[in-house]
Amino acid sequence: MQQRKKLNLNASAFSCEINDPQINSNNQPSQSTNFQPDVKYENQETNQFRYDYHYAYHYTDQNRQNTNFFYQKKANQQSKRIEQNENRLQIKNNKLDLQDNCKQEQKEKQSQKIEKQIKNNKAQQSQVESQDQQKIIKQEKLEAPEEPKQLVLDPKLGYWTYSQKEYEEFNKQVKEYQIKKAEYDERIKGQRMLEQRKRMEKFSKLKEKKQKRNNLLGMKKINQLIRELRIQYKQYVRREKKKQFGYVLDDNDNIQIVEQEKKKKKLSKIQKAKQLWDNLNDPDYETVDEDQIKQDDQQLITILNQLSKINPYSKEKYNNMKIRPWITQIPCKELDDMTLQFINELSFMQAKKKVIEPKKMKKRVVAGIKECLRSIQYTLPEKSSKLIIVPIGIQECPIKNGPDHHILKILKEGYNKNIPIIFASTRSKLGRAFSGKFGPKISVISVINYQNMEEQFTKLIQQSEQQREQFRQLYGDINVIEYINQI
Length: 487
Hints:
The protein is mainly α. Helices cover 56% and strands 6% of the residues.
């Protein structure tokens, strides 16, 4: 910046008058305008003053206000920009803080789940460790080393065209290849030895089995004869009984024997649904309209899909059985044994009473879908159900009037009436416990009267509640009732 000058002048030198018609025409100030300097006197007694050489004099107060307003506007804009930048930085910092908090919460939840699984599954963990020790290490897939690229003659010139460096590198690659090949051969020999050991172990196990069989040849031979007789009986005897014959007269009045057509049995709604589902899965069966079936049963399919999304336990298995999405209880062997024993004793007491006093007999246990629905819908406490047992290994059949549709109905009414429900065992085992060795497969059982069996009943319910608490600790609370009530 240039230095400012100080001059001593009289104030009268800057007083003047202007008379110009062009200026006054466009709304300009009047003809008589007195331009006075805006200065600060150093000494009031004298007329000396200081001024800048850039601006010798100022026009008026309005022009002064305009300049001040311009500088204030710039200052305000700068302050606003600073505030905006600060706000943006705060927003970014807040987002980063939220992401860090979410990651920490996820890590904490995962650690809590792992701790709970370790506490509840100590016995399972010990079994897994023992099994891992017994397992043999899997054989690694070995790959043979690649041979080095050999040096080649130039076909045009007919002599070697490589340099000394290339020759040295080639020799290094050859040495490395020889070392790797030796290691590869040793590993293959080790794997072959392991395979031979495995074969010898299998051979020794087969020998032990044969020895055990030879020790029990007497009983085995008898059982084999019985099996062969049963097969022959099924193949020859029963087929002839099922055939129906008729007599017909010819034109010459001669009698002829003709096989009649068998009467088809009437299938129930559940059996029809199963048959239709089996036909859908067969690729050779072409007369089924899949689109029409899905339109009729779209509501049930959507409910099952929603339940499978909510319940992550449905992706796992129990004894090679698929766990259906409505199960909110972790199964175990103790609970299965208790339920089978409880049902077997009740059914035995029921059958005994039927033989001794058939007139006074009252139902204690009921099996099947129709009878279970009736027992749940009864209003009388004597005939209403006190407990429902559903097996785990129920096959998929998302069709109307199928097993999935009826089981969801039973669960709906059972939850609404606060009836305890237990998920345990399989269909075949429940059938054997209910009606003996050759019993059919059962999909639902309901208990109506458990007199003289109160202790076992309370233990069974306590065990089921423990398994449900274990489920909640691992997977949280799942409200299945909201989706089942849509049916």
